[in-house]
């Protein structure tokens, strides 16, 4: 059955990464309106919007097709980019910049897996922007690949839910999910990351150094999104989060490094650490550090800035205990019941919460170590996440 306009609007609305992608490309370009548009031979419809200039377009809103450059992109299937329309011999005469008062513009086509044209990822601004850095276009193209892959997965998921009759079909769908994320997304992202690193070594002026640093942070953020989705896929396949358990004496140092990294990323929060791990722990140090990082970032994102975050790690009566506590709005009982499920964001829409996988992955890491992750939250005592792992639990886990 052919997909309708509403099908595509609903599909984009279901994709948790789209809002982050729009913010990433806005930061990468300095442009203040970004959107994902569905473009056909009859209409231009906004599916998702990030608007800092009060352009007035909301998801579901339409522009007259003939007034858009996206209609031309639908026909020639190539990106369009310019940074100063009024100074450009061609674009100063084009009707679209004049109609909408645009000086800077970038739009890259989004193609479905079968090669059909879906629409565009675009950014506009009434002010000029420097868009001659090739990494900007590469970032847009990487983002359109991510949107296309997630659209494909969304369509596969809903088609599978409607038509799936046996476990073999479900296994095939899950294998495709991992293949798309692992191959189609990570490879181009690695190329972009390496290119950004090489640019950071070049003798650039302060403005371009800042641009390269923003690009590098965007690459790091997208790498984290992909890694989170891969961990989700592995756990949903029934394999759980993979851990490599070894007897490790460096867990305290690794936790201290995590604390410093989160401090650097959230300088407005005071983090008080009490780390006392004076014996070896049978664990996957990288995964437990990931668990702590997820808890700390969650506390920094949702906790009150005026109050410190307390992190502690100790071995009490042969039990490894790691806790992160902060004050702020308490978590409601209904939210606590689903807090460790994937894609759950207690405070959506703040632009800070990622895909809502951090606590789910932390809980899966705890389970993979034979431990537990719990949360307590109240107006009087604040919110406290606690990971507990009996020291012999990891031995049992390693043997199974």
Could you please describe the fold and organization of this structure?
With 400 residues, the protein is an alpha+beta fold. It has two domains: 5-236, GAF domain (Beta-Lactamase); 246-399, 2-Layer Sandwich (Heat Shock Protein 90). It is built from twelve helices and 13 strands. A hairpin with a 3-residue loop joins strand 12 and strand 13 (382-390). Helix 2 (18-29) runs antiparallel to helix 5 (134-163) and helix 6 (167-200) packs antiparallel against helix 7 (206-236). Mean pLDDT is 85; it is low at 348-353.
Percentage beta strand: 15-25%
Kindly, what is the distance between the CA atoms of the first and last residues, rounded to a whole number of angstroms? 47 Å
Order of helices and strands: HHEEEHEHEEHHHEHEEHEEHHEEH
CATH hierarchy, class of the largest domain: Alpha Beta
Count of beta strands: 13
Low-confidence region ranges:
348-353
Secondary structure tally, helices: 12
Largest sheet: 6 strands, antiparallel
Structural class: alpha+beta
Coarse morphology? elongated
- Helical proportion, percent range: 40-55%
Q: Tell me the domain tally.
A: 2
Strand order across the largest sheet: 3-2-1-6-5-4
CATH A-level architecture of the largest domain: 2-Layer Sandwich
Please give the radius of gyration in angstroms.
Answer: 23 Å
InterPro entries: GAF, GAF-like_dom_sf, HATPase_C_sf, HATPase_dom, His_kinase_dom, HisK_dim/P_dom, HisK_dim/P_sf, Sensor_HK_Regulatory
Catalytic activity: ATP + protein L-histidine = ADP + protein N-phospho-L-histidine
Pfam family, one: GAF
Protein name: histidine kinase
């Amino acid at each position: 059955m052919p997909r309708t306009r509403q099908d595509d609007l609903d599909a984009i609305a279901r994709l948790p990464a789209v809002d982050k992608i729009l913010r990433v490309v806005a930061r990468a370009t300095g442009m203040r309106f970004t959107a994902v548009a569905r473009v056909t031979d009859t209409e231009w419809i906004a599916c998702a919007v990030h608007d800092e200039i009060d352009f007035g377009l909301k998801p579901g809103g339409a522009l007259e097709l003939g007034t858009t450059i996206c209609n031309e992109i639908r026909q020639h299937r190539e990106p369009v980019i310019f940074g100063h329309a009024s100074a450009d011999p061609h674009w100063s005469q084009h009707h679209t910049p004049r109609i909408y008062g645009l000086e800077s513009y970038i739009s890259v086509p989004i193609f479905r897996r079968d090669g059909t044209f879906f629409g565009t990822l675009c950014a506009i601004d009434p002010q000029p922007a420097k868009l001659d850095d090739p990494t900007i276009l590469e970032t847009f193209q990487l983002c359109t690949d991510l949107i296309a892959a997630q659209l494909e997965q969304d369509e596969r998921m809903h088609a599978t839910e409607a038509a799936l009759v046996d476990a073999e079909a479900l296994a095939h769908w899950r294998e495709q999910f991992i293949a798309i994320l692992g191959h189609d997304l990570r490879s181009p992202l690695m190329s972009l990351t390496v290119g950004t690193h090489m640019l950071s070594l070049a003798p650039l002026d302060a403005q371009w150094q800042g641009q390269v640093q923003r690009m590098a942070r965007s690459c790091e953020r997208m790498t984290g999104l992909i890694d989170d989705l891969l961990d989700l896929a592995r756990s949903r396949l029934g394999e759980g989060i993979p851990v490599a358990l070894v007897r490790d004496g460096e867990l305290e140092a690794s936790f201290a490094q995590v604390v410093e990294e989160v401090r650097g990323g959230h300088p407005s929060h005071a983090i008080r650490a009490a780390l006392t791990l004076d014996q070896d722990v049978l664990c996957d140090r990288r995964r437990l550090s990931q668990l702590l990082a997820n808890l700390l970032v969650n506390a920094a994102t949702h906790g009150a800035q005026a109050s410190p975050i307390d992190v502690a790690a100790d071995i009490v009566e042969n039990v490894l205990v790691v806790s992160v506590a902060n004050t702020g709005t308490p978590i409601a009982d209904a939210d606590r019941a689903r807090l460790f499920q994937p894609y759950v964001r207690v405070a959506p829409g703040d632009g800070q919460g990622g895909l809502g996988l951090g606590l789910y992955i932390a809980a899966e890491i705890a389970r993979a170590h034979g431990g537990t992750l719990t949360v307590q939250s109240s107006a009087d005592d604040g919110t406290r996440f606690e990971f507990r792992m009996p020291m012999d639990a990891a031995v049992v886990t390693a043997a199974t």
